[in-house]
């Protein structure tokens, strides 16, 4: 086990990334436990931090942790792996605290427990997924595919790499405009998802559907009907399962918007 850890993370230079992910998971677990205890009004838990009547959200502490961890990682020499790993943990904790209130930053109001607040959990899950894929050694934007097709020192290697990156970015943009956020982001590491996402029907509420699936054209009307059917029959059940898992981990987002 120790040899596997040494080869997979230490020798491959992924130890700071692993510590960053561990810090994010710990930060998310701790802060969600804290806010759920506060929401339940548990007496023995300290509660919100309100010096002088001012409610300081945990995104503030997250920014401080990110600054400390980020600056420390830049200042610590590369050969001090233990200290760099510690800085990565601090940065990961700060990232979790910031992303956990991402919805508040986006809406500029307290929507933490409302329907809009779910986007904070989505942002954290995306961060976990992308970091995990980097830990597995996957490289974004089709760089693995470009490296498999041509050696770096061969003529045209740079041009091919740039072409692959631009193609993947174009597919990612189309996929995101079609309302498929997870496919667009994870597809940066698995280009086949970008191809599928770009070719398949868009979600009916997406910008792509508003632009291309016009009800005043026969072809657009047919695509819109099919997109709505797919959303109702296929996607909605999956979303319900995702929401159930999220609320199991992070609590119910059921307060009315303010």
Automatic annotation (TrEMBL):
Superkingdom in the source lineage: Bacteria
Identification of the protein by name: Integral membrane protein
Membrane recorded as keyword: yes
Record-annotated membrane-spanning stretches: 15-35, 56-76, 82-107, 119-138, 158-177, 184-202
Keywords: Membrane, Transmembrane, Transmembrane helix
Key word rRNA processing present: no
């Amino acid at each position: 086990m120790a040899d596997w850890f040494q080869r997979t993370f230490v020798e491959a230079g992924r130890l700071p990334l692993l510590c960053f992910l561990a810090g994010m998971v710990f930060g998310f677990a701790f802060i969600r436990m804290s806010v759920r205890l506060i929401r339940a009004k548990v007496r023995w838990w300290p509660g919100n931090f309100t010096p002088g009547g001012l409610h300081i959200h945990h995104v503030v502490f997250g920014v401080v942790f990110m600054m400390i961890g980020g600056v420390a990682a830049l200042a610590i020499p590369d050969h001090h792996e233990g200290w760099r790993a510690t800085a990565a943990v601090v940065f990961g904790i700060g990232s979790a605290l910031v992303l956990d209130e991402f919805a508040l930053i986006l809406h500029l109001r307290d929507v933490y427990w409302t329907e809009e607040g779910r986007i904070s959990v989505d942002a954290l899950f995306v961060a976990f997924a992308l970091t995990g894929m980097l830990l597995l050694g996957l490289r974004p934007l089709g760089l693995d595919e470009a490296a498999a097709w041509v050696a770096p020192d061969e003529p045209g290697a740079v041009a091919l790499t740039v072409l692959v990156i631009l193609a993947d970015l174009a597919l990612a943009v189309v996929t995101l405009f079609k309302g498929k956020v997870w496919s667009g982001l994870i597809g940066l590491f698995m280009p086949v998802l970008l191809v599928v996402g770009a070719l398949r029907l868009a979600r009916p509420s997406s910008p792509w559907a508003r632009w291309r699936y016009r009800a005043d054209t026969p072809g657009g009307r047919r695509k819109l009907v099919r997109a709505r059917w797919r959303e109702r029959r296929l996607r909605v059940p999956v979303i319900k399962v995702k929401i159930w898992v999220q609320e199991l981990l992070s609590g119910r987002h059921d307060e009315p918007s303010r």
